[in-house]
Amino acid sequence: MPERIEVRLPDDVRLHVETSGPADAEVTAVLLHGWTLDGRSWHRQLAALRETYPTVRVVSYDARGHGRSSCMTLPTATLAQLGDDLAAVLDAVAPAGRVVLVGHSMGGMTIMEYAHRHPDHFARRTAGLVFVSTTAEGHTHTVYGLSPRIARIIRLAETTGAGVLARCGSWRPPQALLRALRPSIRWMLFGERCDPVDIRLVTSAVAHASLRSIGGFRASIGTQHRLATLAALAHLPAAALVGDRDRLTPPPCAESIAAALPATELTVCPGAGHMLMMERPEEVNAALSGVLRRVLDASPAHRC
């Protein structure tokens, strides 16, 4: 069973963190979830990692304002702050050894921000990268699977609504409202197939995100541009995955990441949407395993 701990950040935000595997492991895999979700979204990957790589330390946590972590002040609802939080979590729960960072959507953007804001820390620690349904170009390619004109209208409504939600503090979305919105959530996040268990999990995660975090992070998610940061990481083993029905981070997002990291293994999953770790767990697990294996093969202990 994973160990559940609390990491207190300098601004008194408390992060819910789950760890498993040896505390002195040579390699640690850290899984970062997407916007409005929580660490449970990785449950299929966490189970596979714990079974297949018992010597690897596995870490997942709920970002500030999400899941079982505490809420925060509105000015700290930014990707920049999430990058700082990642550095703090690594120092607290995996202070030694090399790290493979795995990010979905906002989690992938968090990794890029960590690399941008803490380049020395990143260089000392990071040995591999896995990007799942994410982007380095904000909302540049996001058209929700619709015409550009309609997409602009939706984006305007979305950003306006996000500004309103951001001022609602630590309140959580009403469960009844989320149940009514399940068809919309399913359309936005999933592709051709969706297990009812997964849509219930996603709805539960959204219900645990504060309205401040749901609205507050939208601005920096839409404006972040980190392709230049990625280009400096081309030496690392990496993988990028995307669904060809992803309405939030469509294939051009993953393609630009792969172009910035030429050695990246790019996987496009037919018929899949934004929630690849749930929709296509085998493909995500295989990509993660491929990066982990390359990192482990390069370790001094393995070479001996």
UniProtKB/TrEMBL annotation:
Keyword Hydrolase: yes
Keywords from the UniProt entry: Hydrolase
Listed GO CC annotations: membrane
Any Pfam family hit: Abhydrolase_6
Every AB hydrolase-1 domain range: 30-287
GO MF terms held by the record: hydrolase activity
Entry superkingdom: Bacteria
PANTHER family: HYDROLASE, PUTATIVE (AFU_ORTHOLOGUE AFUA_2G14860)-RELATED (PTHR43798:SF33), MONOACYLGLYCEROL LIPASE (PTHR43798)
Name the UniProt record assigns to this protein: Alpha/beta hydrolase
Organism: Micromonospora zingiberis
